[in-house]
Write a structure and sequence with these properties.
The complex is a heterodimer. Chain A is of the alpha/beta class. Helices cover 35% and strands 19% of the residues of chain A. The chains are: A alpha/beta, B alpha+beta. At the A-B interface, helix 1, helix 2, helix 4 and helix 15 of A face helix 1, helix 8 and strand 14 of B.
C-alpha cells in the first residue's frame, strides 16, 4: 500500500498525545520564572491554535500573540486596488490565490469586480495560469502573486516556464514577502511583549531553519520551528517552556520530518534568479525595509506593475481609525479588545486586515475563539 | 448588504440568509413562509421548489437531472411527506446537445420512480448562447404529509442529533471536478433520494422531531439553523461526525471544513432520546448509511449556538459558513 494523505496527519491529532503534552506543559509552566508571551508568526498556526482549542489547554502564565503571517491580511489596500484596476481592464484575466479575492480595497473586492463583469479566477497552483493562458490566447493573464517564502518558488516556477515556453500572454503582479524582516521589525519596537517565537515549518522547508538564527543570538528570543498539526504545536510550546525553565535560548526544530538548516536549495536558487529583496509596506505594520520580494528589472517585460504603471493608483491607504489591527499584529492587543470586533467588523464585512482571511487573528477569534 | 449580488449570497450560509430575509421575506411575508422549513406545510400537504445549476453537469455519482429530482423530493421527505407530484421547468442554452438533455431527463425519470412521484407539468425555454450556463432546471414538488409535526422549530433537550451518513461527498466531488483535480479515489457525490430512509424510520414509529437535508452550507448550516429556530444549544462531538478519508483528504489539501461542504443525500435528524438507538439501527440497514452516527445532544448551555467538542477536551463554536467557499492559502 502506498502513502495516503491521512498518513501525513494521522497521529499528529491524537487525543492522548495532545493531553499528555498539556500535562507536561502545565507541570513545567509552574517552574517558569515569569509569564511568557509566544508569538506564532504564521496565520496557519493561528488557525491551528484556534481550531483545535490549544489555548484552552495552556496554563494561565503562557500567552499567545498572533503574528503578521497571513499574506492576505498584510496586503495594503492600495495593492488590492491594483488588482481591482487590473481586473477591470479589457481582455484581462486576473488570477490569484484563494481568499485574496474576498478582501475589500477602496473600490471593493475582486469578488465585486467579478460581479461587475471582470474575469477573476483563483487557482491552487500558480502553474494553473499556463492552462488559462493557453485557453485564452487573445487575453492577458495577470497573476497577482501573494504569499511568503512558501509560495514564492511557485511564482518563480511559473515565470521560469513562461520564459522557457515563450508564453506571450502571462504577466505577474508580485506581492511576495518574507518572514524574518517583520519579526525583526516587531521586536525592535520597545513596546513589544514577545518572549519567544513559533516559526512556521513550511517556510523553513524552503528557506531552512537558518533564517531564524539571529533571533536567539542577537535578540535573545528563542525560536522553535513548528509543524501545523495540534501535536506539533503542543510539542513546540513544550520545547519553548523547557528553554525558559532550563535557562536556554536557542533555535530548535520541532518539525524535523522536513526541515533542515539549509532548506530547499533548488527553490532558493529559483527565487534568487527572478526575485530580489525590495521594501514593502505591510498593512498594519507600515514600511519594512527589504521585506518584500520583487521581480528583478531584467524581467520588466513580465511585470504588470511596470507595464500598467500609468493606470495603477499610487497613494497609500490606511485602515479605518477605529481598527487596531496594527496593535494586534504587534501583540499589543488581542482581537476582543477592539471596539468594532464582531460588531462593525465581521468576516462578512471586514474592516481591518485581520478579519479578512480565515487565517487572520480576528477572523480566527470570531470563528472559534468566542467560547473562551 | 452589497449594492450588487455576489456569489457569496448564494452560499446557503450567512450572506444567503441575509439576502433572503432583507429582500424576499420582506416582500412575501406570511406565516407559512416564515416558519422557514425545508418545505411549506399547507394542511396535510408539503410544497417546495428548487432550482438547479451545477458545473459540471455530469459528475461522479450523479448528474443535474438526478439532483433536480432528489433535491425537491428530499425537501418534502424532510417534512415527513411522501413525494407525489413534481413540475419540471428547464432553461436551456442554445447549442446544448440533445443527447445530453436525454441523459439528464432519463436520470430524472429513474429517480422519480424511486420516490414514487410523477412530473405533472413542465415548461421549456431556450435562451441565446451565453444567457445561461448550459442548462438550469427548476422543480417544484407537492407531497402528502404522513407524519405531522416534524419541524425545525421544535428541537428540544429531549432530542439527540443524528447524521445519516458520511458528510461532504457532494461538495468535495464537485470541487474536485470543477478544478480538474485528478486523483485516484472512490469519491463520489452522495446525491440520493432520502424518502426510502425516512419512510423506514416513520414505519418503525421512530419519534422524529426534525429532519433537514444538509445541502448548501452543509451540516454546519443545518445545526445553526436549528439552534436558532428552536432556541437551543447543540453540542456535537467532532470525532463522531462521520467523514470519509477521501473527503478528509480534499479538506486537508484545500483547507475546507467538511461540515461546510454541500451534500445532496445527507440529512441531520433530531430524534427523541428514546428512539435514537432504533433510528440508528434502521439507518445502518441502508448501504449508503454504514457510517450513520449519533453526533451530539441538545442543551441550554449557549442557546442559539452550536458547540464542537474535541476528543482532548477543548471546544469551540461551529459557525454558519460564510463567504464563498475558498481554499486557504498556506
Amino acid at each position: 500500500m502506498g502513502l495516503e494523505l491521512k498518513n501525513l496527519y494521522d497521529g499528529f491529532r491524537d487525543a492522548d498525545t495532545i493531553k499528555a503534552y498539556a500535562k507536561i506543559i502545565a507541570a513545567d509552566a509552574q517552574k517558569l520564572p515569569h509569564p511568557i508571551n509566544i508569538m506564532e508568526v504564521c496565520g496557519g498556526h493561528t488557525h491551528t491554535i484556534m481550531k483545535y482549542g490549544v489555548l484552552q489547554l495552556l496554563p494561565s502564565n503562557i500567552h499567545f500573540v498572533h503574528g503578521p503571517g497571513c499574506p492576505v491580511c498584510i496586503m495594503p489596500k492600495e495593492r488590492i486596488d491594483h488588482a481591482y484596476v487590473l481586473s477591470m481592464q479589457e481582455n484581462v484575466i486576473l488570477v490569484t490565490l484563494g481568499d485574496m479575492i474576498k478582501v475589500p480595497g477602496s473600490n471593493g473586492s475582486l469578488q465585486d469586480a467579478r460581479a461587475k463583469g471582470a474575469d477573476v479566477r483563483f487557482v491552487y497552483s500558480p502553474l494553473d495560469c499556463l492552462k488559462i493562458a493557453q485557453e485564452n490566447p487573445d487575453k492577458t493573464v495577470i497573476f497577482f502573486a501573494i504569499g511568503f517564502e512558501t509560495t514564492t518558488p511557485m511564482t518563480a516556477a511559473l515565470l521560469d516556464t513562461v520564459i522557457r515556453q515563450d508564453v506571450k500572454n502571462i504577466l505577474l503582479h508580485v506581492n511576495h514577502v518574507t518572514v524574518p524582516e517583520p519579526m525583526r521589525a516587531l521586536i525592535s519596537d520597545e513596546a513589544c511583549i514577545i518572549d519567544a517565537f513559533l516559526g512556521p515549518s513550511h517556510v523553513s522547508v524552503i528557506s531552512g531553519s537558518k533564517i531564524y538564527e539571529e533571533f536567539p543570538r542577537d535578540w535573545h528570543k528563542p525560536v522553535v520551528v513548528s509543524g501545523f498539526e495540534p501535536v506539533d504545536v503542543m510539542q513546540s510550546i513544550s520545547m519553548i517552556v523547557k528553554q525558559f525553565i532550563e535557562n536556554r535560548c536557542e533555535l530548535e526544530v520541532e518539525y524535523k520530518r522536513a526541515v533542515t538548516r539549509e532548506g530547499n536549495l533548488k527553490a532558493q536558487a529559483l527565487n534568487d534568479k527572478y526575485f530580489h529583496n525590495v521594501d514593502f509596506r505591510w498593512r498594519g505594520l507600515g514600511d519594512i525595509p527589504q521585506s518584500g520580494m520583487g521581480l528583478r528589472s531584467e524581467y520588466d517585460r513580465y511585470n504588470a506593475e511596470k507595464i500598467y504603471d500609468a493606470i495603477l493608483p499610487k497613494e497609500e491607504i490606511n485602515d479605518h481609525k477605529l481598527c487596531i489591527c496594527g496593535d494586534i499584529l504587534k501583540g499589543k492587543a488581542s482581537p476582543p479588545q477592539c471596539s468594532i470586533f464582531g460588531t462593525a467588523c465581521k468576516p462578512t464585512s471586514p474592516v481591518g486586515s485581520c478579519m479578512v482571511s480565515s487565517e487572520g487573528a480576528c477572523s480566527a477569534y470570531y470563528k472559534y475563539g468566542n467560547l473562551v | 448588504m452589497n449594492k450588487t449580488i455576489t456569489l457569496a449570497q448564494g452560499n446557503g450560509g450567512e450572506e444567503n440568509n441575509e439576502l433572503i430575509k432583507k429582500v424576499f421575506y420582506k416582500a412575501f411575508k406570511n406565516e407559512i413562509l416564515e416558519r422557514s422549513e425545508d418545505a411549506a406545510v399547507i394542511g396535510n400537504l408539503a410544497m417546495t421548489t428548487d432550482s438547479f445549476t451545477v458545473s459540471p453537469l455530469f459528475f461522479a455519482g450523479a448528474d443535474i437531472g438526478k439532483l433536480a429530482v432528489c433535491g425537491t423530493c428530499n425537501d418534502l421527505a424532510m417534512m415527513g411527506a411522501v413525494p407525489k407530484y413534481l413540475t419540471c421547468s428547464v432553461i436551456i442554452e442554445e447549442g446544448f446537445e440533445v443527447e445530453s438533455l436525454e441523459r439528464i431527463v432519463e436520470s430524472m425519470r429513474s429517480e422519480l420512480a424511486i420516490n414514487g412521484a410523477v412530473v405533472v407539468s413542465g415548461d421549456t425555454k431556450v435562451v441565446p448562447k451565453g444567457s445561461v450556463d448550459k442548462i438550469f432546471i427548476n422543480t417544484t414538488g407537492l407531497g402528502e404529509i404522513v407524519q405531522a409535526g416534524i419541524s425545525s422549530n421544535n428541537v428540544s433537550e429531549e432530542d439527540v442529533i443524528l447524521i445519516n451518513r458520511d458528510i461532504g461527498c457532494h461538495g468535495a466531488t464537485i470541487f474536485a471536478a470543477r478544478e480538474g483535480m485528478e486523483m485516484s479515489s472512490t469519491l463520489k457525490s452522495d446525491c440520493n433520494s432520502l424518502y426510502p430512509q425516512v419512510k423506514a424510520l416513520m414505519d418503525a414509529g421512530v419519534r422524529i422531531t426534525a429532519m433537514r437535508d444538509a445541502t448548501r452550507g452543509g451540516v454546519a448550516a443545518v445545526l445553526n439553523e436549528w439552534a436558532r429556530q428552536s432556541n437551543v444549544c447543540i453540542e456535537v462531538e467532532e470525532e463522531k461526525i462521520p467523514v470519509s478519508d477521501e473527503v478528509k483528504g480534499i479538506c486537508e489539501m484545500l483547507g475546507f471544513e467538511a461540515t461546510a461542504l454541500a451534500n445532496e443525500g445527507t440529512f441531520v435528524l433530531a430524534i427523541h432520546k428514546d428512539s435514537a438507538a432504533k433510528a440508528l439501527e434502521i439507518l445502518k440497514g441502508f448501504e449508503v448509511c454504514a457510517m450513520a452516527s449519533r453526533v451530539g445532544e441538545v442543551t441550554q448551555k449557549y442557546p442559539q449556538k452550536v458547540i464542537l467538542k474535541s476528543p482532548w477536551g477543548t471546544s469551540r463554536f461551529l459557525e454558519t459558513p460564510n463567504g464563498e467557499l475558498l481554499p486557504r492559502i498556506c
